[in-house]
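Exercise 7.
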Amino acid sequence: MATAEEIAKFNKDGYLICDNFLDADEVATLRKQCQHIVEDMNPKEHAPTVFSTIKQTDNDYFMNSGDNISFFFEAGAVNDKGELLVEKHKSLNKIGHALHELDPEFKRVTYKKKIHDICRGLSFKKPVIVQSMYIFKQPGIGGIVTPHQDATFLHTDPLKLTGFWIALEDCTLKNGCLQFVPGSHKDELVTQMVRNDDGKGVHFIKPADLVKEKYGDRFIPAEVKAGTLVVIDAKSVHMSEPNKSEKSRHIYTFHIAESQDTVWSKRNWLQPTEALPFPELYAGKEQ
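Solution. The predicted structure, written as tokens, is:
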């Protein structure tokens, strides 16, 4: 089980850093598997669709990406005609949102015993995996991830949602490591991104005012080594700066929600589908 000290620290800070979650071979396997996925991808079949946390992607490609493996590009990698300006392995912002179920290597990591243990320690009764992403944070063009709370984008009532973020390369201030405001998960949820009534896009219920200046020097960098797991409360305020270095910052992340005695918001952009209902964590074999 997750230790009492780990759970207490998570409850205090709103995030938890777990060193050595993956060993070097496991990290290399995920990196190699992602490389194969990208090699098999034809950019012309994916728009290319640019992803940005500043201007939300709300086209059909994004809205329908919950039950498949879709590809999203960096703004600096695509010209006005939708043509790639750089080699495709260096053009992607992220891959999402069903790696946890559709790819065997990412599925294995998602169901690791430590994930089960942490969820039990956090009192999850019937946790489901709702989405997953491989994020590249490309050198030179990897964009900013503005201050946010994950529950803005994925919401249950009552709220019980946790992010699991795994470093596949060393993450530093230079290449855009995570930064947290400790204890911010105890504050209110600032805003929610919800589906438009016609289901064709998204909007924010109220303007977001999570700006870095609001928190002054309260942001704490989380510089971590490859293989580290960071567990993130849904209301914890966090961000990452643009990657202006020459080194990428690859990570794998997924979100787990409570499904017992909660309601998955019908207004979330992400919805379970007949092709892929949200898989139950405890029903899967511990790895």
